[in-house]
Write a structure and sequence with these properties.
- The complex is a heterodimer of chains A (106) and B (135).
- Chain A has a single domain, classed as STAS domain (Transcription Regulator spoIIAA, 2-Layer Sandwich).
- Helices cover 31% and strands 32% of the residues of chain A.
- Chain A is built from 3 helices and 5 strands.
- In chain A, helix 3 links the parallel strand 4 and strand 5.
- In chain A, helix 1 packs parallel to helix 2.
- Helices cover 32% and strands 28% of the residues of chain B.
- In chain B, strands 1-2-3-5-4 form a 5-stranded antiparallel beta sheet, with helices on one face.
- In chain B, 39% of the residues are buried.
- Classes of the chains: A alpha/beta (106), B alpha+beta (135).
- The interface between A and B is medium-sized, with 24 and 25 residues.
């Protein structure tokens, strides 16, 4: 199986590729990956959600965790999210605190 | 009515959700509503898995029945620590991310998605009932 790189960081911008389901089972693994970014100078947290089919509160908590622990001032982008996933963001009120866009443009 | 018992551990979450979804699919909900039911189920079940049996093993019993006049009634019960999920304060969804607290978001979403939610403590069990009507 090819290694899947889901979290990369360059030029102060962390790119996180989400796919499949981000739920109570898969969220802890992503959180562990994001912990590796703590201490690095990151101003943008860009979540690519084109292949994300489902997100639950566990997934939302990882996004909150990323902002709280990596850089509270970082701007959060949510790219290419499907309607059902964006609806969950709206339900939680988190949509007002991130830039929800079809493609990444700063 | 379909009823099944599962070990209350994360490894069984998918199986638990699949059990509910197989029942929900028979009720005639559209794809979007099924997705919401799936989410509400996960949130309710994760709470049992995470908090009902601290430091020990336990089970969760799930039953699904058609709602009168269309829809589904899901009952999730456990023999764990007495806990009323409806007693949790609602999270403040106007708070920016950096001020959000950890808890409460899951049950908040259950309440937003489902048409009716209920809790009772009976015979040493927490019983959490979720109802979604067919519109």
């Amino acid at each position: 199986m090819a290694e899947q790189v889901t979290v990369t960081c360059a030029g102060g911008c962390a790119k996180v590729v989400l796919s499949g389901k981000l739920d109570a089972v898969s969220a802890p693994g992503l959180q562990e990956e994001l912990k590796k970014l703590i201490g690095q100078p990151i101003e943008k947290l860009v979540f690519y959600a084109n292949d994300l089919e489902y997100i639950s509160s566990a997934g939302l908590r990882v996004i909150i965790f990323a902002k709280q622990k990596i850089n509270v001032e970082a701007k959060v982008y949510f790219i290419g999210g499907q309607d059902a996933v964006v609806n969950v963001l709206k339900m939680s009120g988190l949509d007002t605190f991130m830039s929800i866009q079809p493609t990444f443009e700063e | 009515m379909e009823k099944r018992e599962f070990p209350a551990i994360l490894a069984h979450l998918e199986t638990m959700i699949d059990f509910v979804m197989r029942s929900a699919e028979k009720q005639g909900f559209d794809k979007e509503t099924l997705g919401q039911i799936r989410l509400a189920c996960e949130e309710a079940l994760v709470n049992v898995v995470s908090y009902a049996y601290p430091g020990k093993e336990g089970t969760v019993e799930i039953s699904c029945a058609p709602a009168p006049a269309g829809g589904i009634v899901i009952e999730i019960s456990d023999r764990g620590v007495p806990f009323d999920p409806l007693s949790l304060p609602e999270p403040d969804t106007t708070l920016p991310m950096e001020q959000r607290k950890i808890g409460g978001l899951g049950i908040y979403m259950v309440r937003k998605i489902m048409d009716d939610v209920g809790y009772r403590r009976a015979d040493g069990r927490n019983v959490f009932t979720l109802t979604k009507f067919l519109k």
